[in-house]
Amino acid sequence: SLLTMAILLAAICADPKVQTAEPLIGTDHLSRQKNLILAIDVSRSMSGPIEVADKDARFAAYGQVATEDRSQRTRYDAARETVYQFVDRFPEARAGLILFSTEPFLARWPTIDTGTRFVEVLDDDLRNLSQLRRFSSLTNIDAALQLAGDVFTKLASSQGGAVILISDAEDEFENLGLAIRNLRGQDIRLYMIGVGIAESVAGKLSDEFAGDTGFRIFRVDSEREMQEAYQLVAALEESPRYSGGERAYLTDLRWVLALLMAPLAVAALATGELLAPRFRLAHSVGRRLR
Questions:
Q1: Phi and psi based region of residue 162 (left: phi greater than 0; alpha: psi -120 to 50; beta: remaining)
Q2: Domain extent for 284
C-alpha cells in the first residue's frame, strides 16, 4: 500500500548506513569541482640542468649549462612540461598559477578557462633561459604558500583545495613548518615536489607531518621522477576521498528527502486511522443489507 511504501522509504533515507554511504559520483564530475593552484619556482637556479648528481656541481651550473649545451633539459623545462600534463587531467578544474622567486606573483587567477592561459604564461618570455636567469637567485616558498592561501580565501564558495608546489630550494624546505600549518589550517592540501633536495630534508618534513594525509612531499632527481610525482598527485586528487563538499551535499539531500517523507508517512498513517472506522462501518452495513 501507499502507506507502507512511504514508511519504508522514510526509514531507508534516515538509515545511518545510507547517510554515510559514498556518493555515486564519477571522478570526472569531481575534477570539475576542484580548486587547484600550481606554484612554480622561477628563481635563477631553475635554469640549471634537471639531472646533476653532485650538489656543488648543481649550484656551480646555475645560468651556465643552458649557454654551453642548449639541448640539455633544465629544471624549469621539466616543471613546465609536467605542469601541462597535470592540468590536462583536470580540464574543468578551477586552476591558478603562481610563479615565485624572491617574491611570488599570481600569474593566473584560478578559473576553469585554464588550458590555453597556462600555455600563454609558461611559453612566453619565461621559456627563454636568458629571461629566467634575470630572476633572483633567492627563493621565498613561505611567501608563495601565503599567497596561495590568500587566493583560496578570496575564492567565492571555496571549500578547500590543493596547492602543488615545485622548487629546488633545499634551504627553504627546511624551515616551512609554520607556512605548511597555516595552509593546512585552511583545509588546503599541499603537495611539495623538491628537485634535487637532500633525503634528510624531505624526511624531516615527512616526519613532522606524518599524521596529516593532506600533506605530501616528493623528492625527485630526474624528469621521469617528477612526472611520476605529478601522476601520483593527480591520482590522489581524483580520489573520492577529496570530494568532501559534494559528499556533504548528497548527505544533506538524503536528510532533506527523509524529512520530507517522514511527515507524509505520518499524514498517511493518520488519514488511514481516520478512514478505517468508516470503512469498517460501510463494510458492516453492506453485510447487513445482504
A1: beta
A2: 2-24+245-289
Taking the C-alpha atoms of residue 43 and residue 104, their distance in angstroms, rounded to an integer, is 10
Q: Count up the domains in the chain and report the number.
A: 2
Co-location of 38 and 122 in the same domain: yes
**pTM, two decimal places:** 0.66
CATH number of the domain encompassing residue 89: 3.40.50.410
Contact predicate 230/203, CB 8 Å: no
Dist CA 82 CA 220 (whole Å): 13
Please tell me the predicted confidence (pLDDT) of residue 181: 92
Nearest to 74 by CA among 217, 222, 183, 212: 222
Co-location of 94 and 170 in the same domain: yes
Task: Clarify whether residues 200 and 109 are in a common domain.
Answer: yes
Say if residue 97 is in the same domain as residue 204. Answer: yes
With b for 16 or more beta-carbon neighbours within 10 A and e for fewer, the 9-37 pattern comes to bbeebbeeeeeeeebeeeeeebbebbbbb
Quote the CA–CA distance of 132 and 105 in Å, as a whole number.
Answer: 15
Residue 50 and residue 18 share a domain? no
SS3 readout for 130-157: HHHCCCCCCCCHHHHHHHHHHHHHHCCC
Candidate ranges 11-15, 97-101, 172-176; pick with highest mean pLDDT: 97-101
| DSSP classification of residue 15 | -
Q: Which H or E run contains 199?
A: helix 199-208
Residues 158 and 277 in one domain: no
**C-alpha of 206 from chain center:** 19
Mapped onto helix, strand or coil, the DSSP state of residue 216 is strand
Exposed / middle / buried, residue 205 (Cβ in 10 Å: 0-12, 13-18, 19+): buried
pLDDT tens-digit profile of 29-54?
433 468 899 999 988 888 888 876 55
